[in-house]
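Throughout our pipeline, every protein is held as a single compact record rather than as scattered files. Nothing more is needed to write down the fold, since each code stands for a local backbone conformation. For reference, a complete record is included directly beneath this paragraph.
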Amino acid sequence: MAVVATPVASNLLLIMDAGLDEYGQQLTRKRQFSNLKTSASDEDVFQVAAAIISLQEAACLAIQRVNTVELTEEG
């Protein structure tokens, strides 16, 4: 039985530094940008993320791309 993965959505998630709490633990803020083209290359998404980060005051801790796929059975 073969399974086919069909891309349905792609999002860009930036994890931003929000300082430290009263116990010295790292605080973060998530910035999500939805509706990326599922066909966009990772390099293009990274370049867009870098451009967005350059406009932010807070440091970026991580850049994530979240892809959602629909799984169906081929046959």
Summary: The radius of gyration is 16 Å. Residues 3-73 form one domain. The mean pLDDT is 96.
